[in-house]
Known about the structure:
2 strands; two-stranded antiparallel ribbon; 465 residues; mainly alpha; 75% helix
Amino acid sequence: MFLSTLFLITLSAWLGLIIVTLLITVEGKFLGLLRVYQIVLALLTAATGLVGFITQQIVIQSIPLIFFGVHPSFCLDPLSSFFVMLMGFSYIGISCFFLDYHQHFALSQQKRIQIWEGLFVFAMLLVFTANDPLSFLFAWEIMTVSSYFLVISIDTNKKNRKAGFLYLSIAHCGLLFIAVSFFLLFSHCSFSACQFHQSITITQSIANIIFILMLIGFGAKAGIFPLHIWLPEAHPAAPSPISALMSGVMLKTAVYGLIRFSFIFLLPLQQVWWGYTLISLGLITMFIGVIHAAMQTDMKRLLAYSSMENIGFIITSLGLAIIFYQYRQMILADLALIVVLLHALNHSIFKSLLFLGTGSILHATGERNLGKLGGLIHTMPWVSVCALIGTLAMAGLPLFNGFISEWLYLSIFFHHTDGVHFTLAVLSPLIVAMSVLTLGLAGFVIVKFYGVAFLGEPRETKLLY
């Protein structure tokens, strides 16, 4: 009962924010108060997800309206609770940072960011909790459109418009594939995101088609190779806190969708080759992401490609979970799923911190090119400390959150010797080698990022304050 009330209050409070924002920003007044309200909402959202995840309860809230014969409803189960918690924890820091950061923009820009940001975060909350196809697809579209307007919110020059159009085009193509996968699946059974369908009636061939469609659809949003081309273009164009939201939270909506489809909706029809497909795409995404990140001089593009590498890590772990489940090694399957969820949470926290750090650097120096920065540890000590924490976590060093998930991931390969399938036994050394190589290059990238910007000698940049 408590969780149901808390969930209803959270949804109502976010809806109230959207309505109040539309009324207040007409005159541009009280924007600071709205920012404080959003911090409270972030705390409320994190608390709702945390309570739901700890209690493992299932709560469904229905809206007494009918759209196209469907009653919109929203569900909080353990999986959606985890991602709501992830969003809430990430947004606490982002909303606190935005409290002062938005003052750097003109009033017209502040209005646009305020309107679309609230709608963007609310839409992601609805994506994580939607309990019917129409609600999910509607929330997904609102999330896409609002994030597009946030990408072009600061400057509508040709470069930003091109980046926004590229993102919007790929996102809508992905939405089409997701919609078709929903149609194929739930034309054969009733929809409920919170319930496992034991009596699913679709054939194996249809299930395989659904897997391919949902992989393309969610892969486009996650930035999986070769659908990643929008990611390094859209992130630098958006304000830094919005980049933190897109990288830390929005990419996880795709991870949520992949888990929901592969381990709930299609679990009885799951196939081993699904796992190997995810591992192949994940490893390629990891490697290409870290290679491109190593070549970047633009801080935000470097972090965008780094997000691609981390998403590849998560997708690889999800593929391992499917394979172990099919080989009936349940403990290892559970461990791989823990790695998926844990690294999704870890990445949302340390990547948000790093994007906020780049925002501070950008507005202190007017520069985001690493080649023109240096010695910031002396002029921006607090930013350097926060950035150091983020970089050490991203590098996966012990005592920081990134280490935990990476260590658990590598430990999987040292605990499946009993009854291991021949194919996995042959491929495991290659998977480990590719993973270690990528993680090592990620360490180099982060040393480059922090060492050049904060520890290197000052270069051409002249601080603005």
